[in-house]
Amino acid sequence: MTNVFMNWKDLQPEKVRFIDTRFDLANKTSGREMYDEGHLEGAVYWDLEQDLSEMTSKMGRHPMISKEKMTKLCRQAGLQLEDAIVVYDQGASPFALRAYFLLEWAGFTNVHVLREGYEAVKGLFRISKEQPEISVSDVVPNWEDAIYMDVDDVKKVVAGESEGQLVDARAAFRFKGESEPIDSVAGHIPTAINVDWEQLKEDGKFLEKDLLVEKLQHVTDINKPVIAYCGSGVTAAPLYASLKEAGYSDVKLYVGSYSDWIRDNEVERG
């Protein structure tokens, strides 16, 4: 099984590179403000919309970034492929896991997400208000394209031309199409099943591995390709990571997600 999450008790700050991804979808500047007010010493800041999404794209509400943008982001952070990297957000949020997915896509193999988040650990480790001095790296990503799916890949799964189980991370009422508070069309991608990502956390942190196994091992055949999506591709990242933690060996993420799918594809309700 993959260990995506790291508990604070196992953290050795002097041996890791920190990435702070705190964000608030309702207040787009608050993440950077939180970082400036104090962050784990040495952490760089990555913003969900400025850094981890391609907001000029029409392929969903938080579209996938280009390889060029990801390469530049990693180089500016001074990262090397062999670095031990720990990503965190405010806790029980999807933002660190979005960064985790992108780092995995870029071929970084020693990346973990702090299970408890910043709020739970800020009294335990050294905090700084200073932006660290970073030596830009010349890292060349080792792309893992198999974990990323676009709308054409998903169409093949829906049509039965490719194997895979789509899993929708949104709340059940949105999945069923009973109401839709954000997107223009209510429903879900045909053939998908529903696992609300909110079930994967409690008390401000993501569940421990044994509880994730208990919750997720019966979603589908554990050896079958499984594809996480949500509304905009953000809250699908915790589902993606939790499925990996629960022992699924072939997990993918449809970053465009439902907001991309509904541009010109049919949906199901119920």
Write the layout of secondary structure elements.
Blueprint: E1 5-6, E2 17-20, H1 30-37, E3 39-40, E4 44-45, H2 67-76, E5 85-88, H3 95-105, E6 111-114, H4 118-121, E7 127-128, E8 148-149, H5 151-158, E9 165-168, H6 172-175, E10 193-194, E11 201-202, E12 205-206, H7 209-216, E13 226-229, H8 236-245, E14 251-254, H9 257-261
Parallel strand pairs: 1-6, 2-4, 2-5, 5-6, 8-14, 9-10, 9-13, 13-14
Antiparallel strand pairs: 3-7, 11-12
Helix pairs in contact: 3-8
Give a description of the structure.
The chain is an alpha/beta fold. It has two domains: 5-128, 3-Layer(aba) Sandwich (Oxidized Rhodanese, domain 1); 145-261, Oxidized Rhodanese, domain 1 (3-Layer(aba) Sandwich). The protein is 25% helix and 15% strand. It contains nine helices and 14 strands. Strands 1-6-5-2-4 form a five-stranded parallel sheet, covered by helices on one side. Strands 8-14-13-9-10 form a five-stranded parallel sheet. β5 (85-88), α3 and β6 (111-114) form a beta-alpha-beta unit. α3 (95-105) packs across α8. It is globular.
